[in-house]
Amino acid sequence: MERTFIAIKPDGVQRGLIAEIISRFERKGFKLVAIKIVVPSKGFAQKHYYDLKERPFFNGLCNFLSSGPAVAMVWEGEGVIKYGRKLIGATDPQKSEPGTIRGDLAVVVGRNIIHGSDGPETAKDEINLWLKPEELT
Ligand code: ATP
Ligand code: MG
């Protein structure tokens, strides 16, 4: 069955949005198959966002992701990669529709509270980067 990697970023954890976010994925009908709290190191954040290394905001983004506890999760279900991105909303919360996680709960692009894999290859890579095989059910 299809799986995706979802992370609640440090701002989402700090703001007390863990239950709210998990609940939206659960109510949709997706299945939580792995979850843990981690404080990513800066080097780890750089690996996670490697594709964005040339962007001007890369350093700030990696500092932010490594600034505190994040929740790393794997969710499973038919179409979960694409639909998970739909639940999350557009990258910039100003452009996210109301009803989406970022649309309802975030304001600025640098503090958009949640990450979701953007395709089957990234989903596989990110699950392998963030979780050990024995942490997956
Ligand atoms: P994510 O990968 O976190 O799920 P995304 O796939 O919607 O987000 P990406 O293009 O992969 O968007 O960008 C990764 C992250 O980089 C964004 O979530 C956002 O926090 C940050 N980011 C993207 N564009 C900008 C920008 N113009 N200024 C500051 N931060 C940005
Ligand atoms: Mg992305």
From TrEMBL:
For the protein in the UniProt heading, the enzyme class is transferase
Where does the chain bind ATP? K9, F57, R85, T91, R102, N112
What residue intervals traverse the membrane?
none
Active-site annotation: H115
Primary location class: plastid
Among the GO molecular function terms of this UniProt record, one is: ATP binding
UniProt EC number: 2.7.4.6
**This protein's GO CC annotations:** chloroplast thylakoid lumen
Q: Where in the cell is it found?
A: Plastid, Chloroplast thylakoid lumen
Q: One biological process GO term for this chain? A: GTP biosynthetic process
Print the keywords alphabetically: ATP-binding, Kinase, Magnesium, Metal-binding, Nucleotide metabolism, Nucleotide-binding, Transferase
Report the residue ranges that make up the Nucleoside diphosphate kinase-like domain in this protein: 1-137
Q: Which reaction does it catalyse?
A: a ribonucleoside 5'-diphosphate + ATP = a ribonucleoside 5'-triphosphate + ADP; a 2'-deoxyribonucleoside 5'-diphosphate + ATP = a 2'-deoxyribonucleoside 5'-triphosphate + ADP
Listed cofactors = Mg(2+)
> Which proteins does it associate with, and in what oligomeric form?
Homohexamer.
Q: What does this protein do?
A: Major role in the synthesis of nucleoside triphosphates other than ATP. The ATP gamma phosphate is transferred to the NDP beta phosphate via a ping-pong mechanism, using a phosphorylated active-site intermediate. Shows the highest specificity towards GDP.
Provide the family line.
Belongs to the NDK family.
Protein name per its UniProtKB record: Nucleoside diphosphate kinase
Q: Which organism is it from?
A: Actinidia chinensis var. chinensis (Chinese soft-hair kiwi)
**Where in the full protein does the shown chain start and end, and how long is the full protein?**
87 to 223 of 237
